Amino acid sequence: MLEVNSENLRIKKEKALRRLSSIYNLPSVPFIIIEVSKMIDNPKTSASQLGGMISQDQGLVTKILTVANSPLYGIPKRVATIDFAIVILGFNQIKNIVIALSMMDTLKRIGNGDFKHKKYWVHSVMTASAAKRIADDLGYHFSGEAFTAGLLHDLGIPIIYKYFKNEFEEVVDAINNNGYTHLEAESEMLGITHQEIGMYLLDRWNLPQSLAEAVAYHHTPGEAENVTELVALVHLADYMTHKLQLGDYDWDSDMELDKSIIETLKLGDEEYLESFIDSYKELFEYQIESLDF
């Protein structure tokens, strides 16, 4: 870790947070998330009513069906309609998918040709689907939340690109020419990392604290104090895209495995973890082939 001036970083962080809080056109929670959440919270809502609401956004319907039918998502039956997806997945799973996909669609609008949005999107979907599948395979009951956290884990990166353009270029230069890691460069140039920016936005959107923590510590799960299994799952899925070089992303080129997840997820030892990761390679390959966004 490069030596840094902690007081200087504190000042930079406060400045970055002030700038974020003053940006009037930061992405807001999409209307469909609010409406879907209201419907799901109403015990009288039927699957057909919920499907009718979601069907108002046909692009979202297409993405939900693509996710539901993807190899890593693990549904044995072909899901052809949104109503059937709701029946098979349940209201809470659908809510998690709608939240994640709607937020990603909002983030998509802030990029342009310079930002590798397609690669970012594929990486996010791969991490989300892998986190969900691993959660299911290991018997965790919050696999839908793992999907949402996985899809949103890097949401701070396009925010840096859009609203801190000069610092974004300085981060890239520090990585390419001065030997910084991505997190070191973000801290040095901004005083804040993409993890912290992601947590700030999730808090701003009043999304569950568990999601905010998973995003805040997805590179450093050993520092998480709550929902440690969820954080570890997102970290592992993110690392696996890099390790297997399937759905990997440039921003993770220097990512290192936090070995604390071995104990957190009860994965035995490093040798077992290696074989565990390798066992997903074929599924990852199928998943890449299935993505069509």
Secondary structure topology:
Elements: H1 6-22, H2 31-41, H3 47-54, H4 58-68, H5 82-89, H6 91-108, H7 117-138, H8 143-152, H9 156-163, H10 165-178, H11 182-190, H12 194-204, H13 209-216, H14 228-244, H15 260-264, H16 270-278, H17 281-290
Helix pairs in contact: 1-11, 2-3, 2-6, 3-5, 4-6, 5-6, 6-8, 7-8, 7-14, 8-13, 8-14, 9-10, 9-12, 10-11, 12-13, 13-14
Description:
The chain is an all-alpha fold and 293 residues long. The protein has a domain at 6-27 and 110-290: Hypothetical protein af1432, CATH 1.10.3210.10. Helix content is 67%, strand content 0%. It is built from 17 helices and no strands. The protein has helices spanning 6-22, 31-41, 47-54, 58-68, 82-89, 91-108, 117-138, 143-152, 156-163, 165-178, 182-190, 194-204, 209-216, 228-244, 260-264, 270-278, 281-290. Helix 9 packs across helix 12 and helix 10 (165-178) crosses helix 11. The protein is globular and about 55 Å long. It starts with 5 loop residues before the first helix and ends with a helix.
